[in-house]
Amino acid sequence: MQLFVCVVLVGVVYADASREASVGETTKTVPDWANEERFGKFQNAWAGINDTTAFYYMYAATYETETTFGGNFSCLNVHTTSVREHEKTVDAVMSYKDSTGQWKQTEITTKAISKYSYSTENALEYGPKGSTGKKDVGVVVFSDSKNCDIMSVKNGEHLELWVNQDVKDAVPDCCLFTFAYFSVKTTTTTTHKFYEQGNCKKNDGK
């Protein structure tokens, strides 16, 4: 039933976007899913980062390497350590395995912000804790904080699928289907898996 609902939802997104694409040139610069009136309730950026008890794993992405993590990496996960509600900002620890299989950690600060003229926070701006340099931005395509978040990253060219620790070994079909559907709309239709159950056990105890 959950997968059926996802199929219907994605179908609505595609149909609405197809109709709007013919209205004017400006719609071409806005992703199909960036419509607050219709889909904003599925794109709550703040809900996905303000839980200090949860770990989230990057299960898959449409890219394979990332210079921030030294090129090849796996088991990327993030855990919020402190929350500043009034600023919509959190501090977190990001952990991953590098190309040699060694665990690495970095502290980051993440702020929920608005993109595509949304009145609510539908994106995350993040970077090394204490840094005043340029931040990365990920925009929420779909969010169900108890299960998964799908993020549009790298200036809209790629997608990431993040999953809650409680479902990382049995990701709901709805999450996998929605990620697969929107992945074909990126610059590459290839997806890469970054989480493997036997390879990624760490201090969350699961």
UniProtKB/TrEMBL annotation:
Renumbered to this chain, the signal peptide range is 1-15
Keywords of the record: Signal
**What is this protein called in UniProt?**
Lipocalin
InterPro entries recorded: Calycin (IPR012674), Tick_his-bd (IPR002970)
Query: What Pfam families is this protein classified in?
Result: His_binding
What molecular functions are annotated in GO for this chain? amine binding
Domain of life of the source: Eukaryota
